[in-house]
Amino acid sequence: MKIVAKFSLFVLLLSMASCKEDFVNVDNPGAISTASYPNSVADLEQLLAGAYATQHAPSIFGHNMLAKNTYLWDHTTDLSWQGTTTWIQLAQNNSQVNDSFLQGTWQDLWRGIQRCNTLLAGVEAYAPKAAASDAAAVNLIKGQTLYLRAWYYFYLTSLWGESFIVDGQGGDKQGVPLVSKTATSLPETQISRSTVKQCWDFIISDLKAAETLLKGKSWTGATDKYKMGEWGVKAFLGKVYVYVQDWANAKTYLSDVVTNSGKSLVSFDTYKTMFNGQNEFNSESLIELNLNVDMTYRGTDDRSMGSSIGMVIAPTYVGPNGAQAASAWSNVFPHAKNIARFGFNLGHYFPAGTATANIANVDKSYITRSVAARTNKTVDPRLWVACLQPYVDSMIISGVKKPISHYLDISEIDMEAWSFRKYIYLGGAEGEVNMANGDNILWLRLADVYLLYAETLTHSGDNATALEYINKVKRRAYGYAVNTPSAVDYKSLADQTSAPDAVLKNDPLKYERWAELFGEGHWWFDVCRWKIGDKEAAYYQRVRGGTIQWDATDYAQPIPINEITSNVNIKQNAGY
């Protein structure tokens, strides 16, 4: 699906709308005046499209998000590329204040806030003079904008807030500055950090206001499906209430979504393709970031309608000489410890003593065992939804099927160097779509809601129902009917899972969140709110660039040094 928008226009319009003459004096007789813009619902919709599109700005889901932040901190990924020291340090839980990836994400999230605030000011200015027939449309625009502002603050608070709220503690720690209007003077940009609780309260307030304005609204038109409606807001609110451990409100909202939204888990066949540009806006999707292949601008360009996440996580394949070849940048691959966590223990594709990563040296019996495990589901089937298996799976290169290889530049011949599958282009190399992938981001879906609901129910003593919702998610993964007891059901909340490690081995709730949502960018926030970072670091131990260096302050990322130097009232997080 498309959002037809050109960022260059939005940058002009939004910057014009956000500056007074005494702040930035621009003498341009051809510029659009804030007195005449926005002056219609169409003008507001134009600005709204820009606020949505900022979600896939280059340093958010246009490029940096996942492989250059959350994938690293939670060790979803390891690095084949060893040429960027700060990138390696992110993977070691040793983030630096001068890291350019963090700086970019910080700036683009704040740009999203600024665009929302500018649009909200435009709504307030236009609403009194709007025709009565436009009032409903204006309210829908305002509701969506409040949702978007909450979305940007969700990331700012989750990534840079000093702590999550755990057992009533942490709310008084530093959050981020709360900005509800666009600055018109330099002093107005010098804002101190609010507390973590104040930030979450602000997010909840925006979402509840959006809930009221979007009540009863769903978008079914082909060009509107990406827009926020009632159930997406309610699901988001339920997730936020879980994050702040307000279990009563979490139960109210998540139960409402589960019972009344009309959403349902898709089949496993649909599930395994919906991260690759197919089956978009399906019955499971609640919030979906809209992308489209863009042959004009790459995902690293602010004007692009696509994403270049896929170029960073691109698979590697068997080239003409039987060795590894990159399908794009191919910088990162799934951390080897993740393969074992899905229950894969069938040995390695190269026999012991192999010296060269070449398809000619693959153990043929390994392929036979792997195919049998996939067919018989003796390994969690979600492994092959999330990852591509070397010398068993294939990809298309210029119309020709090529086997996946031992990942590029991995010198450790015995390492499980697989490739990612979620959010990569399955129809060819990323370069064939101009490194502007059109795979929509399924940001919040019903399986996530089921597991959040199950977690919530454990805090009200309803373990039986909690276990049932965990099992619903697992049943779908194994191809069973979702609502009928199955042979793969967990028998208790402490039953054995597919994972071999102490963190997940006997915790079905945590394991199912890890396995079901693997590669979707949620696990890091679970690690933070459960305070299991030290245990996760102990399991993964190291990345190719060095040993993981876990400290208790690593749950929060450092405020970028540029922000520290430009805002005299902002203080750095502890540990940096």
TrEMBL record:
Organism: Spirosoma endbachense
Keyword NADP: no
InterPro entries associated with the record: SusD-like_N, SusD_RagB_dom, TPR-like_helical_dom_sf
Keywords: Cell outer membrane, Membrane, Signal
Protein name listed in UniProt: RagB/SusD family nutrient uptake outer membrane protein
Any GO CC annotation of this UniProt entry: cell outer membrane
Residue stretches making up the SusD-like N-terminal domain: 39-241
PROSITE patterns, per database record: PROKAR_LIPOPROTEIN (PS51257)
Pfam (any one): SusD_RagB
